[in-house]
Amino acid sequence: MKAFTMAAVLAATVALPSVGMATDLEVTHWWTSGGEAAAVAEFAKAFDATGNKWVDGAIAGSGDVARPIIISRILGGNPMGATQLNPGKDADDLIAAGLMQDLTELAAAEDWANILRPASQLESCTVDGKVYCVPVNLHSAQWMWTNRKVFTDLGMEPPKNIDELIAAAPKLVEAGIQPLSMAQGWPVGLMVNDVLVAQAGVENFVKVYKDRDLAIAGGPEFGKIFETLANIRQYTPADKMVPQWNEAVGLVIQGKAAANIMGDWAGGEFAVANMVAGQDYDCLPGLGVTPVLNTGGDVFYFPKSADPAVTEAQLKMASTLVTKEVQVAFNLKKGSLPMRADVDLSAANDCMKKGLEILDGSTAVFPNDIQMIDRDSLNQINDLFTEFMANPDMPAADAQAKFVSIIEAAPK
Amino acid sequence: MANKSSAIVPSGAKPKPFVTPQRFLVYTVLTVCAVFFLFPLYIMIITSLKSIQEIQSGNIFIPTMTPTLDAWEKAWNSACTGLYCEGVKVGFWNSIKITVPSTIVSIIVASLTGYSMANWPFKFSEVFFTILLLSSFIPYVVMIYPLVIITRELGIYSTLPAVVLVHTIFGLPLLTLLFRNYFASLPAELFKAARVDGAGYWQIFFQVFAPMSVPIFTVAVILQVTGIWNDFLFGVIYAGPTNYPMTVQLNNIVNSAQGGKAYNVDMAATILTGLVPLAIYFFSGKYFVRGIAAGAVKG
Amino acid sequence: MHSVSVKNLTLKFGSAEVLKNLNLDVEEGEFIVLLGPSGCGKSTLLNCLAGLLELTEGQIHIKGKNVTWAEPSERGIGMVFQSYALYPQMTVRGNMSFGLKIAGLPKAEIAKRVERASEILQIGPLLDRKPGALSGGQRQRVAIGRALVREVDVFLFDEPLSNLDAKLRSELRVELKRLHNRLKNTMIYVTHDQIEALTLADRIAIMRGGIIQQLDAPQTIYNRPANLFVAGFIGSPAMNFIKGETVDGGKRFKFGDVSLDLAGYEGGAILDRPKAILGLRPEHLTMVDAAIPGHTIPAVVEIDEPMGADSLVWLLVEGRQMSVRVPVEHRPAPGKQVHLKVDIAKASLFDETNELRI
Amino acid sequence: MDRPNPLFRNLSSKLASLPMMLIVLGVFVGGTLWTVLFSFTNIKILPIFTPKQWMDGFVGLANYKRLFNSDRWMSCPAITKIGQESWQFKCTGAMPNMITYAILAIIIMISLGFLLAVMMDQKIRLEGMFRTIYLYPFALSFIVTGHVWAWIMSPEYGLQNAMRQMGWESFSFGWIADRNMVMYAIVIAGIWQGTGFVMALMLAGLRGIDEDIWKAAKVDGIPAWRTYLQIVLPMMKAVMVTTFVLVASGAVRIYDLVVALTDGGPGISSDVPSRYIYQNFSANLGQSLSASTVMLVSMAIVLIPWIRMEFGKKSQG
Questions:
Q1: Which of A381, B166, C128, C252 has the greatest number of CB atoms lying within 10 Å of its CB?
Q2: Is A268:A33 a contact under the CB 8 Å cutoff?
Q3: Does residue B131 sit at the D interface (CB-CB below 8 Å)?
């Protein structure tokens, strides 16, 4: 442990040449797409304005690439000042090992429990009554994005839900347009989950994921949805897949594809392309079937530092991230919803307003998947879904059976 | 050694004075293969010279009529890698800072190890060598956390020495094999003569063997520079944020699209990042073959 | 005091015993040749003497000093290798002075010694060249020079002439002998070439299977080989061997229908041995036209090989081949029936069971 | 004078090998032990190292059970065709994919590399140019190789699209999106990247062959191709061994190329063990460790006897 602290001190002094008022904080995150980078810039601007310095440590490639790097850094005794990390079970181990900065005092002083909503977000940052991370936005993954122009050009009415899209699909294909663009990897899993929750309803979905209700997971209703998915997969053949989610969104923006199923962060890409919601494109929460949204979101953790100046800067940053102005500026760019209800969102676009409406209705709101089940099981589910959607030979019943067995094996 | 390098001239069948069907076949096969090997480079270069509109509308195989170096400029100077939009150039010196000492240290360690294995074997040296060879089959990724702990305990985590150490470790199996084979192929009598002359371990290495080993050192340098320069993971984990190599920027550019994928910038960034190892291959390919001829052939 | 003394030397590579309990004493100024077929352990023994191989058991003394565990350079030896083993990146001068520099000798002394050795070997003009620019013979001279400058008592030669062509080899052979006469150092010389051994050696040690079979002056080895192996190995063309038995209380050697009188044989008690081998060198047989009972062997001429000064005639005796050296004017026609007269005083008789000379 | 303490024999050699010994023992052996031992625990995201943590997290063979039950790692369903007696096994998953890749890559790279080397050895003109062309891909990282080839082979943008644009409407090249062909697409990219290096090794081997062999073969009237195959090839054993170690260790560890080229897709049909290990690495370390243990053990079974045979015998100079 001695070498550990020594290394930490050493690293801290190396990383921080000037011990004074201004403290450099390195921030790791995997936000490198256009909309994301623009949003991060708002954070950086606000933090720099406090007299400290945001040192950007972006690592593209999402969690799989970034997570081992983040964990290594923390483990190695030279942690970053702050880091994006999925809330929930991901960080539990790190907290249990005492490697994360406790934010409880700050949270109490600023009354986070009351100004941040929904409560579930702050809860996922709370372990044994202590707050360890700061939620910065609310994301929901259940959106279908359509390019209006594609449909109007073909003399068609833009679809209001996924069923209408499927109905229109043959005509789109005929016109040489991809009905549904799709990116490889987790976007496939996201889409399958979206279809599941839209068709089966929030209650059943949460029962399966959170309460591990095998009867529902293996039941006829889910069975039917798997059949629907098997039908959809003809429109997402492997040779139409693109590597990144934002490329898939890009196809919709360019009018090469009619629709894409993606989280609200896709809105940031439309914004960068200067498209207007409700006019150039439609965003349909709950895939237009039932207006449901989950409340995932991004959070920042602050690895513990031996340097009090760093700790101070960390607390400053945590506080900055949830101030009103920063929340508005950031979320408008990111396409996500702010954590605070008490902010002025007149500048928000149609999509965000739709989201806020649902959020206030709250019955249609459900927790993010990682808050209900562990990442390992999620990965397995994702494997299953990507394989199911890519393999036309895999019967829907098989996929459902495997889904049930993963749910069954997941640790409670 | 004169007779060694003279063995580098072609030893195949004598050339015929006229174009025979056989030679025609040889050149045809070589050319077809050359086309296959050049194809991706061609694509990379012409794509990097196109504008984004041209890429989206056009055929990837057809070169542009209006080449532009904009993408190159952007990739080097202003492509966004997260918050910063300074292109790949920011990591260039870091890559040098990592590559140079890593190459030197790993080659010193491996050459001495190979020399010991070949000329001064000791008890269990064969066992160590076997484990070393097996280690070249270990998936690197499982070694990440143990190495984090090791470098942390050494007090060097997140510094240049840590990444130098890691590259030395993962370069060791292959380089040791090459050096061992090379030194084993040198005449045993030379080693004996030096010992009779009173030269010890270090004197033989530095004064007798090292001057004869330029070819194999060339190979080792080429292999290590290429591997280390292209590395992303170790650099990002062990070198510390102040030393992030160029590949970190490349990864951020290539693995994320900012408002539609800028393939031309991707390609330019790719070529720019690969320029150092590419240059080394272009200029020293001859010594590479020569060096391997000296090192890997016998043993 | 012996110059070099090997005591009970055993060397094992793993379980293989390469040298077996070997003893060898070399006198001051003596030229010893280790001779034997490849794999007999002669080079291995030399490497042990040089300290390049570690013994399993036994001791080595050089000039009365136990050097068993001493470094090669501390043993007072110089060594010359078959492949010359010159350092390719150094000049001839560099090669010769390398060891002296390591030993920390003053520059003037090094220059003096290099000067002297190059004068002895007549390689003065080559001093600033690199080995790559030298011919094989020149390289070997440099290699010898490198041993010479060490000014040691014992020189070890490991097949130094094997890489040279026949003409150069015989030239350098003579030169080596001259060198030995001049320097009077102890020289231990490994070769598989018996001509070199016979011409150069004061004593030859014939080795097989890690054991010295016989250590004697060249003439003794030639005339009185201690066993069947030595007899067969030395001499070109090889000695003729005839399997048979000794009868009449060791007075006669009988094979097939032939019976030879053994009176005059120089050796031990012959006795009656049911399995004996008579060894006859081709030059110790004469071809005669008429049989002399008890002293000749009937034979039929097969072919002959004229060799300039004399001719080697191959004959068939009882279905086996034998060779006879005859003056070239006495070449017989093939198919001719002849008789071979045996000079029993120069013959060797072996017991087939233990292969030792009787 | 006594026999010196064997500990101090070749002391310099031991000292110089000390870094290697420390690395072998501390990193390779130590890391492998850690991998094997903690593959029996429920270690999830944060790595653990102490015996107490090991005891607390011990779960026996649970990780291995899951590994071998996972379709992603390996599944070998037996297929009976109607009217046929015979059973067919078609294995899918990361492990069979890697083995397919390794076998193909080793065979094609070595034979194509040898063929190219033989042709380069015909005293051709422009040898330097050809050599550079074949060798340069080795200077590029797998990530780059993967991205470029992904693009070339992409049915949407790549070769297929281009050919159709140029009027060859029926041209079809969609391996990368075809779950049955995708591994071959990866093999193509792998060959492109590594064959030049193999060629260089082989060329070096050929140049080390004694000239007299050619004269002898010519006198005997042996055709050139037979000389290469039956005389020269067996003489190049050492270079073959080096090449094999290089190509095989690269093929077994293949990761970046797959990630950049297909990211395991379509579905998980081009998954490989290293990718499985890497992905579990940030979610379920136990799985990751058990998968690499399986990989290491299977490698060791194949390699140890061979290494002992190949390198053990040369211990005496």
A1: B166
A2: yes
A3: yes
Number of structural domains, chain D?
1
> Which two tokens mark B110?
């491996």
Distance CA D84, CA D99 (A): 28
* Mean pLDDT, residues A87-108: 84
- Which C positions 279-338 lie with beta carbon below 8 A of chain D? none
- Say how far apart CA A263 and CA A265 lie, in whole Å: 5
Nearest to B120 among D13, D208, D300 (CB): D13
- Between CA D286 and CA D45 the distance in angstroms is 9
Element (H, E) at B163: helix B160-185
Contact C96, C117 (CB under 8 A): yes
First to last CA, chain A: 33
Among the partner residues D35, D159, D201, nearest to B142 by beta-carbon distance: D35
Instruction: Write out pLDDT tens, residues B210-269.
Output: 988 888 888 889 889 988 998 888 888 898 888 889 888 888 887 765 555 678 888 888
Distance between CA D3 and CA C55 in Å, rounded?
10
CA distance linking residue A149 with residue A169, whole number of Å: 15
At residue C301, what is the residue type? V
Q: Is the dihedral of CA B178, B184, B190, B196 positive or negative?
A: positive
pLDDT in tens, C56-115: 889 999 988 898 888 888 888 999 998 888 998 899 999 999 999 988 999 999 999 999
Cβ contact A136:A321 at 8 Å: yes
Nearest CA to C86 out of C44, C135, C124, C50 is that of C135
Return the half-sphere exposure (C-beta side, CA atoms, 13 A cut-off) of residue B269. 31
* Length in residues, chain A: 412
Task: Identify all chain A residues contacting D71, using CB atoms and an 8 Å cutoff.
Answer: 387, 402
H/E stretch holding B4: helix B2-6
Per CB-CB distance under 8 Å, the chain C contacts of D4 are: 69
Given the DSSP bridges, would you call strands A143-147 and A257-262 parallel, antiparallel or unpaired? antiparallel
Closest alpha carbon within chain A to D265: A184
What sections of D166-312 are H helices per DSSP? 182-207, 211-219, 224-226, 233-235, 237-252, 256-261, 273-281, 285-312
Helix axis angle, C92-102 to C136-148, nearest 10°:
20
Tokens of A335: 């396409």
Q: Phi/psi class of residue B159: alpha, beta or left (left: φ > 0; alpha: ψ in -120 to 50)? A: beta
**C60: β partners:** C6
For residues A332 and A257, state if they share a domain. Answer: no
DSSP class of residue D92? B
Nearest CA in chain D to C57: D3
CA quadruple C140, C143, C145, C151: dihedral positive or negative?
negative
Q: Alpha-carbon distance D61 to B66, whole Å?
A: 63
Pick the CATH number of B89-295 from 1.10.3720.10, 1.10.10.10, 2.60.40.1120, 1.10.287.90: 1.10.3720.10
Kindly list the residues from chain A whose CB atom is less than 8 angstroms away from the CB atom of residue B83: 37, 40-41, 44, 54, 56, 58
Q: Is the ipTM, as predicted for this complex, more than 0.95? A: no
| A64 and A20 both lie in a single domain | yes
Chains contacting A with at least 3 CB pairs below 8 Å? Answer: B, D
Residue C185 to chain D, least CA–CA distance (Å): 26
Query: Quick count: other Cβ atoms within 10 Å of Cβ D217?
Result: 19
Helix axes B214-230, B246-254, angle to 10 degrees: 40
The residue count for chain C? 358
Architecture of the domain whose range is C4-233: 3-Layer(aba) Sandwich (3.40)
Evaluate whether A31 touches A84 at the Cβ level (below 8 Å): yes
Q: Which two tokens stand for residue B236?
A: 């990002």
The pLDDT tens digits for A187-209 are: 899 999 999 998 888 889 999 99
